[in-house]
Amino acid sequence: MTTTTSAVRPTADVRESRHPILRLVPLVATHPVVFVLTVASIVFHQVCSIGAVVTGAVIVGQVASGAGFAGIQGWLIVLALLVIGRSAGHWAEMWIAYDLAFRLLITIRLRVYDGVERTAPGGLQDRRTGDLASGALSDVETLEWFYAHTIGNLLAAVLVPVAALVVLGTVDPRLAFVLAPALLVVGTAPFTLRRLADRQGARLKERLATVHAEVVDGVQGLRELVAFGRGPAYVRSLRRHSRALYAEQLRFGHRSGLEAGIAEVAMALGIVAVLALGAQLLSAGRIPFADYPPAIVLAGYAFIPLLEVSVPLRMLGQIRASAARVHAITDAPANVADTGRVEVLPAGSLDVRFDAVTFRYRVGDPDALRGVSFTIPAGATVALVGQSGSGKSTCANLLMRFWDPDHGAVLVGGIDSRTLPVDRLRDLVALVPQDVYLFNDSVRANIRLGRTEASDAEVDAAVARALVAEFVPELPDGLDTVIGERGATLSGGQRQRIAIARALLKNAPILVMDEAVSNLDTENEQALNTAMAEARRGRTTLLIAHRLSTIRSADLIVTLSDGQIAETGSYQQLLAADGAFARLVAAQRGGSLER
């Protein structure tokens, strides 16, 4: 029975409406001990640093007040311990803070990849590779500023100045009173232009992502740019985007400089106020001279934690923009809902049935498929033919559940594919795509991607059946030859054979071949067709082809036209019918097909 429930397109999850930076904080709870140690090491380092200089000032004050060496011996020991503690604290701060940050960045990178994988391929159609790379690399790296230099330092920037005010208040409360406003101004200066910083950060990250995308496009399309003489035009485009990025960076520098200037003026005024008030109190006999130098030094060094945290705080706009871009990837809804729970399938070979399937890629687009129904019996081969855009590859996409039908259903072994867990369904299908992606690894590793636990003997068998063995002896290291990014050192036909070997190694009951022999010459195509006929034996196979000679041996041919089935039958039956299939044959006369 035809399923007519319309597939609901996923919509953005609106559960997370918090500020992007606030959403970074809970991740710290996954490493509570390391975080506590981070804050403790930062505070310890700051306290020892301030304590060392204040102790030095105390020693100066004691000596100036007439104290002898015996009177400052204890202070000298304290100074030595504080200097050692400052060094140890600095080492611990750098080690533990970066350890925390890099642990969290690992988690975020994995979440970014999970988001990309979950939404692929439909959710990535409108995203440039360079933009995604920016989100996965540059934006994640920007978050290191938050975890390593902001969150722990922010707590220290509150605790240490408060402690300094308390100590200063023991000398005279009025000294703490005149210093507090300056500390407050320095601490809040990075937040005074927060809205402007957020806007600048968003624009800056957008410009940076655009430049990254332009560079990636240029590198990937370098051969075409050179071949068509478009190098100068590309350079002009890159220069234009780079200048736009420079302008945003310049505006960021102006704002950061203004915030830094406000902080430095406030700090100077605060220190001068303590200096002047301390001198007045000293002359009035309200404080002893021995307390005056430590009070001045303490007033100056109370700003150090605030100044250290102000640098990453001035980057909050960029951190916020990067966090928002990362969240946009990690929060993206799955392209298909993985809610299937059916695990048990019929034993043996599985049939595939398209039952009144209607589908469009985007709302407002024309239907890619309309009411398409056909069956691939278990162990049989059905070929889809038709002009480009007729819906052939769409059928493969729906079978793999890269998308779900809007109406109708795709059934595997008589079970609606939407009731199967996505991973379980895809384990049942081996895909040989038209556009093969090979990794910068050995031939063997790229083939073993089909089944990582396969033995060398099984790999060798797949190599032989896909005719990879014919060109492997020509490679420097045979199957262990590293073939470059995207298999750049191989021909198109060689890359396609590796993809076929990969699919054969997977040994799935269902085989999808989308233009699997499109990059082979006629001689190799005929040889590979013979090998693939044996490989298809016992497998339910969906064969998609433009070169009609590759589908002669199919049990059934389905001709698609504008997303609908025009006719079905065997090769000879469709030729005799003199319909859409026969017209496709006629269009290829003199090419790879003879009628």
Walkthrough of the structure:
This protein folds into 3 domains: 18-171 and 313-335, Up-down Bundle (ABC transporter transmembrane region fold), CATH 1.20.1560.10; 173-286; 352-591, Rossmann fold. The strands form 2 sheets. Strands 6-7-8-3-9-10 form a 6-stranded mixed β-sheet, with helices on both faces. With 595 residues, it is of the alpha/beta class. The chain has helices at 32-64, 69-119, 129-149, 151-171, 173-192, 194-220, 222-227, 231-283, 292-301, 304-314, 316-330, 392-399, 422-427, 443-448, 456-465, 492-506, 522-536, 571-577, 580-587, and strands at 352-359, 369-376, 381-385, 407-412, 415-416, 429-432, 510-514, 540-544, 556-561, 564-569. The chain is built from 19 helices and 10 strands. Helix content is 58%, strand content 9%. Mean pLDDT is 82; it is low at 1-17 and 591-595.
What's the arrangement of secondary structure elements?
Blueprint: H1 32-64, H2 69-119, H3 129-149, H4 151-171, H5 173-192, H6 194-220, H7 222-227, H8 231-283, H9 292-301, H10 304-314, H11 316-330, E1 352-359, E2 369-376, E3 381-385, H12 392-399, E4 407-412, E5 415-416, H13 422-427, E6 429-432, H14 443-448, H15 456-465, H16 492-506, E7 510-514, H17 522-536, E8 540-544, E9 556-561, E10 564-569, H18 571-577, H19 580-587
Parallel strand pairs: 3-8, 3-9, 6-7, 7-8
Antiparallel strand pairs: 1-2, 1-4, 4-5, 9-10
